[in-house]
From TrEMBL:
This is Aromatic-amino-acid transaminase. Gene3D superfamilies: Aspartate Aminotransferase, domain 1 (3.90.1150.10), Type I PLP-dependent aspartate aminotransferase-like (Major domain) (3.40.640.10). CDD domains: AAT_like. It comes from Meinhardsimonia xiamenensis. GO terms for molecular function: identical protein binding; L-aspartate:2-oxoglutarate aminotransferase activity; L-tyrosine-2-oxoglutarate transaminase activity; pyridoxal phosphate binding. GO terms for biological process: L-phenylalanine biosynthetic process from chorismate via phenylpyruvate. Its cofactor is pyridoxal 5'-phosphate.
């Protein structure tokens, strides 16, 4: 039987990591994989996470199963973090999942149950795992224009024109903040316009929010999601705790489905639990428990927010330093977009040949579409990257 298996395409980012590891040059720079790193190049365990883990170790009395949808306290804490008071709690069904990826997968399966044949609309470009999972599930998908490659900003006119073609029952996948891979995001007035268009077409929003707190701040980064959820009858949300709590390997995420009214919530909730049961039964609990402890304890929460803010501001400083150095070297403002983008990533608009040149000549590793991970840079490495970008003729 196993001889029938065919080789799967290699994940490009993981292949890039292998190449980076094999490169003997000491001054090489890894801007590939999407993991936050501090000025020392380390992905730290956040202080509040360590503190919560210590308390948990001392006080946890059982490792028995939680519920199929995870601990309701986690769902409640995450509803508050992501949605604030945008919608009534009684309308929000939620289930813990293995990471944000698990939430996306379960969300897509929920959509397939509720609206078989629904087309999923994806931004061009998007995180490659979105189309990969959708294809694997056999669901129809279409792209909407999103990135204006010349301006390195959102092609809002193109986006609106494409999404006007969505049909009732279709689903529009939106990045809640810190768009991956482009770094270009909607303004609040643009979110309003998208909400109005969704209302008009009858398409359902599915929001992937994986970087809340990495862009303009915890509240600011959730503003688009809240606006959509408050205005549309139904919203599906996949949230990840991997980045903003730095608990990547704990696999902590949540799928939330805002139902049209509280009466409809129990059936939605039952379907979320059913889908968890089919795929993995009980979701992982360790990371979810830490997140719940942090969000529900004033001191831990304040310390977590302070550290998250340090991380966010550090990335912004790097963005500004890189944009300034490129302004100096190029004598133009054409790299100003790097300081405008938000989150861990920016698509710098280099060709595959230029990306290869930067890798081979300068030991700078970025994904083939020229996505750079800002958190992979240190302030000391900024001049080297800027010089390489200019040398490659970007
Ligand atoms: N959505 C986007 C856009 C992402 O970039 C990521 C992480 N790379 C995720 C979701 C999910 O991350 P995880 O499964 O690690 O929580």
């Amino acid at each position: 039987m196993l001889e029938n298996l065919q080789e799967q395409p290699k994940d490009k980012i993981l292949a890039l990591m292998e190449m980076f590891r094999a490169d003997p040059r000491a001054e090489k720079i890894d801007l590939g994989v999407g993991v936050y790193r501090n000025a020392q190049g380390v992905t730290p365990i956040m202080r509040a996470v360590k503190a919560a883990e210590k308390t948990l170790w001392e006080t946890e009395e059982t490792k028995a199963y939680t519920g199929l949808a995870g601990d309701p306290a986690f769902a409640e804490a995450m509803r508050g973090l992501v949605l604030g008071d945008a919608v009534e709690a009684g309308r929000v069904a939620a289930a813990a999942t293995p990471g944000g990826t698990g939430a996306i997968r379960q969300g897509l399966e929920l959509i397939r149950l509720a609206s078989p044949g629904a087309t999923i609309w994806l931004s061009a470009p998007t995180w490659p795992n979105h189309p990969s999972i959708i294809r694997y599930l056999g669901m129809p998908m279409r792209e909407y224009r999103y990135f204006d490659a010349a301006a390195r900003g959102v092609d809002f006119e193109g986006m609106m024109a494409d999404l006007a073609q969505a049909k009732p029952g279709d689903v529009v996948l939106l990045h809640g903040c810190c768009h991956n891979p482009t770094g270009a995001n909607l303004t609040l007035p643009q979110w309003q316009e998208v909400a109005a268009l969704l209302e008009k077409t009858g398409a359902t929003p599915f929001i992937d929010i994986a970087y809340q707190g990495f862009g303009d701040g915890l509240e600011e980064d959730a503003a688009g999601t809240r606006l959509i959820a408050a205005r549309l009858p139904e919203t599906i949300i996949a949230a990840s705790c991997s980045k903003n709590f730095g608990i990547y390997r704990e696999r902590t995420g949540i799928l939330m489905a805002v139902a049209e009214n509280a009466a409809r919530k129990p059936v939605v909730q039952g379907n979320l639990a059913f889908l968890n049961r089919q795929n993995f039964s009980f979701p992982p609990d360790h990371g979810a428990r830490l997140v719940t402890m942090i969000l529900n304890d004033a001191a831990l929460r304040a310390d977590w927010q302070a550290e998250l803010e340090e991380m966010r501001l550090g990335m912004l400083r790097i963005r500004e330093a890189l944009a300034a150095e490129l302004r100096r070297l190029s004598g133009s403002d054409r790299f100003g977009f790097i300081a405008q983008h938000r989150g861990m990533f920016s698509l710098i608009g280099a060709s595959p040949e230029q990306v290869e040149l930067m890798r081979e000549k300068h030991g700078i590793y970025m994904v083939g579409d020229s996505r750079i991970n800002i958190a992979g840079l240190t302030e000391a490495a900024v001049p080297k990257l800027a010089a390489a970008i200019i040398d490659a003729g970007v």
